[in-house]
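# nightly structure sweep
# worker-07 picked up a monomer target from the shared queue
# config: single-sequence mode, recycle default, output format = structure tokens
# input follows
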Amino acid sequence: MIDLLYSLAGVLVGLLVGLTGVGGGSLMTPILVLMFGFHPATAVGTDLLYASATKTAGTAVHGRYGTVDWRVVRRLAMGSLPAAVVTLTILSFANWQSSAMAGVISTVLGLALILTAISVFFRKTLIARLTPLFAGDDDAEIGRITIILGAVLGALVSLTSVGAGALGMTALLILYPKVPVARLVGSDIAHAVPLTLIAGLGHLSMGTVNLWLLASLLLGSIPGIIVGSLIATRVSDRVLVPILATTLAIVGARLLF
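# output follows
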């Protein structure tokens, strides 16, 4: 049945997503594992379909206003979708209910959260330092690097549900400095839809999705995202970003140790 406690968690995550733009996977999956005691595989699988549903609406908005670079989306998908299928195939042959698999997922999730925290807190520094490294590459080379980036994100997202948001966006800002930020944001969201849908359906076929939990989360997160988006302009990034990055780093360390 619908559980209002899970819906409340959805409201909290939706609010933070609306305020900061950081993907729900970085926030929702750790909450489901650490606070509610779900098996990491169930938390990941449920969160993937949750992300697919919420980001479909975001893609529709960005598509309507022309803020999606479909060339970038295509390149990312060329790497991420095959990588997701391979990762899901490996998972399907593993015993996902075992404590060993739970440990693997928790460890990779913890590392992904720490990397996300770094990319959130030091984004401007990372972009300033790394962008010149790719300044001399032609479009074909950037395309190949983007496909490789997509493959890394596809494997990471399928295993942990984390990576398509903050990590992917930081990498795109480095690779495509001349593309308007709004178009990169729209492209990142648009790419996440097929990736999270395929990964989520793969987890559903393995039985690692809790549909009542999914419904409860969506019930709370949708109004949370709306409210967060409405008040985002009134809250300073100087306050939110350090708090969010510190929280992600602490949660990541908790999953590792």
